[in-house]
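Changelog note: in this version the structure field was regenerated for every chain. One regenerated record is shown below for reference.
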Amino acid sequence: MTAPAPTPQASGRVSQSAFDGSRLRVILLLDIHDGAQQEFLDAYEHMRNQVASVPGHLSDQLCQSIENPSQWLITSEWESAPPFLAWVNSEEHLETVRPLHSCVRDTRSLRFSVLRETFGGGAGAAAPAGSGLQSAPRLGDGVVRHALTFTVRPGSESKVAEILAGYESPEARVDDTTRLCRTSLFMHGNRVVRAIEVRGDLLAALRHVARQPEVRAVEEALNPHLEQDRDLDDPQSARAFFTRAALPAVHHVASCGPRSPRVRRHALYYPARPGRGMELARLLSRQDEIAADDPHGPVRAATVFQRDDVVVRLVEVEGEPDAAPARVLGLGKPGSAAEAARLLDAEALGLDGPPAGERDLLRLLSHAGMRLVTDRTAPGS
């Protein structure tokens, strides 16, 4: 397969992107239960052909530590990030990796865009231009962004909002290198979105939060209201729930404009037509990247989260959102609203047609806007 050419970026402002066209290297670190090495190898052999047939997959390697036989490494290379994200967030992936669960004590997944590569043979030659490499290093603020989303039983929304707004914030410090920065909770109908910002190791932060008594109490209080049943005392049930709830950040950009005390955080929900979620996320990301060059625009930063047909955009807005609905929606450029209408599930948003003018954009902003439940920033963040 031929990897797509990298997309030009707004240098210094895009700190995260799944849409730069570069190849993706995925590293999975695994700690295997004592004595389960052969069982793990057999499970891997069973699943390797399934993974090889996934669109966008280029290759993978299975490695075992030469020092500790319980430590294993799986590396895989992908044509680009979107096909990997589509697969890793799918029900097919859950079923494919299920046989590994009984063998594995702990895992850690890392994802990297390929920036440069050098070939052996004494030549030391770099890869040719247009070979699917990230064009330039990204710079950012050192913050990792992630979100979780799930739905609750219709009629329980008020009770769920009360539960989510009432808990005490967990300790921000995770360890010497990781701390929680900010947690924002939003609702749209019966859908909950929890956006998390971490400085350091995201997985360590998520595990830290899960161990906190106040958070565990909230999760238990939510259980009766969830549309998807779960048992947090059953590792397989908990793993399946949080895997399905993962809503990865696929793009983040910060404006070149100055920050102001008037900046407020908002979340917008963009349900996509079946199979069009990634395309819609790409459109919004592209518009945000273009808008970031305008120092006078109202949007100071934007993060796009996407999983399947669920797209959520977190925006930092200066002033009132309805003063510039097109820009706040990420549809400020000519033709972008019509393109988005082709990808949006208008019925899910309660709309009767594509936005055709300022009034329609205000209606879309109202329908897409999510209710803020709580927004907590850790001291010193």
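Spot check on this record: Residues 118 and 124 are 6 Å apart (CA to CA). The chain is about 30% helix and 30% strand.
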